[in-house]
Design brief:
- There is one protein chain.
- It is built from four helices and four strands; from the N terminus they run βαβαβαβα.
- It is of the alpha/beta class.
- α3 links the parallel β3 and β4.
- The N and C termini lie far apart (25 Å).
Length: 110
């Protein structure tokens, strides 16, 4: 949860809780789970406080849609936040791929 966020440097955003746990196990300090593929304004306001937002939603139509909406919403509200999209390959799940592979993808981006 957000009460565990250690700093406001970087946050990785995923769609669900199990994916958030998988990302956290890669060593990421700040992870946010949307709880689905719907984007709420309150979430955008919290995320735009970070210097970098890594959008790592699912590699499907719903994940692509919420990623696009999030990037557009945050970039429309602030220029102080670096935005990156990380998209796993079709069929790959954050909580099913190797931890080092996921860490590498999160560092590298799309």
């Amino acid at each position: 949860g957000e009460h565990l966020w250690r700093d406001r440097g970087r946050v990785v955003v995923v769609e669900g809780g199990f994916k958030a746990l998988a990302v956290e196990r890669t060593g990421e300090a700040n992870v946010a789970a949307l709880g689905g593929s719907d984007l709420r304004d309150a979430v955008v306001r919290k995320l735009m406080r970070f210097r970098e937002v890594v959008v790592a939603t699912d590699p499907d139509d719903a994940g692509d849609k919420v990623a696009t909406e999030m990037i557009q919403a945050i970039s429309g509200m602030t220029r102080d936040c670096k935005l990156r999209r990380v998209r796993l390959e079709k069929g790959e799940e954050h909580d099913e791929v190797d931890r080092s592979y996921l860490r590498q993808r999160l560092q590298r981006g799309v």
